[in-house]
Specification:
This protein has 472 residues and is α+β, with helices and mostly antiparallel strands. The protein folds into two domains: 238 residues, Rossmann fold (3-Layer(aba) Sandwich), CATH 3.40.50; 95 residues, no CATH class. It contains ten helices and 21 strands. The strands form five sheets. It has a nine-stranded mixed beta sheet, sandwiched between helices. It has a four-stranded antiparallel beta sheet with strand order 9-5-4-10, with helices on one face. A three-stranded antiparallel beta sheet has the order 6-7-8, with no helix packed on it. Helix 1 packs antiparallel against helix 2 and helix 8 runs antiparallel to helix 9. The protein is flat, with a radius of gyration of 29 Å.
Amino acid sequence: MSETIGEMILPGTYIEVRSEGLISVGGIATGNVGVVGTANRGPVNERRILGSLAEALDTFGGAGNWPGTDDAPALTLTRTIEQIFKGGASTVYAVRVANGTPASADWTLTRKEGAADKDVIDLTAASPGSWANDIKLALTPADTPTQLEISYKRSPSSPTLKESYALGKASDMVAAMAGSQLVTAALSAATEANNTPDKVSNQITTGSDGATATATQISGGLDKLLAEPVNIVTVGSAAGKNAFDGKTIGATLLAHLEATENEGRERIAVLGTWDDDPTKISADDVKSNPRLIIVGPGIVTDDGTKLPAGYSAALVAGRLAGLAPHVSLTNKDVAAAALTRNYTRAEQKNLLNKQLLVLVPNLGIRVLKGITTDTGAFRQISVRRIVDYAKAGVRIGSNPYIGKLNNGRVRAALKATLDGFLSGMVLDEMLTAYQLDVTATRAQEIAGQAIVTMLLQPTFSIDFVKVIMNLG
């Protein structure tokens, strides 16, 4: 059956099927979180998609020691991802960044020949970073070894990952280790393929992390997220001089938000304040932007660890990812044990006037008011997300019509497609009403343009309840 009839030559019945009336808007992602930070394991400047904290630990290693120092800041990526998933996110796009090129730990399997040891197999950690400094290599049993045992334990509470390989020809061992999760193996220079190692050298190179990442490296990591379907983005926050927050990394994030919006991949950035003391947060340092959320104060975890506001931002990002676009963050609880500072009512008012999102203790820890830093129409985060959702739906719904005839019938079908999508937004209570028109003048038809005009009325959330009591 032909759905597009080019010519009719032979006698018969020709059927043309026009599918425009069946085109609809498919699913739209609203809760994908992008994050950039430092780690002790995993590929550098490569995007990884994670569905759980366990995947993050396997990919990027443990969170590392806390707190860090000015010279050796704490690693940020895994700890940030932990808060994102704790907040309620289900999908995270993560990029590990580093200052310089992190070193990979390596070892050599040798063979004793005469008075000297001859290199047989070179082993290199599967990815650069300090994680591999905890890898243990041994030939077992010690007296008459028959196998190489490689073991790794991420933390005292984590299980030990063990790999065993039979001792034999070097070429066979290298082939067997091709599937190792811990190391890569190669024949040493000038060795013979049938040599068998009988000794493990001490670690030759110590793995390093490049943990002192700068805004330049963070910007490069964000570039890896440009083309991804990310809706919310944040940056790992560390102690010391590398505290990437709403002030030190603001310009970098705003440039990223501008670039992604121009590419039709709108997203919201969530960052932490640069100080728990509200007197040190100047309104001049808070950039008005409908896509920027700045969160404070810091949080206290279940084990009593005090984390700066960058991790509060990660927790809020995860909470936001778990909410439908039209659901406000105002008065929503977040999974923190406590706050590093409890603001007074006057301090809360002061920070809200600076367009900061404030966490407060109230039957747990809650968001006082879900706002962006925008001083205009997009103060409520939910309104910004509703509009972004509508824009995404219109793009998806309009795309199948590009290349079709620019006549009244096709434009009516396009309007029907978009009308169905926007009607769904009304039913889902994202919009209270809308107006839609699809038009084209003769000149626009010749130019291949169809003009979609929409008037959207987003649903606003209740921020205040006024109660009038009549006493009798």
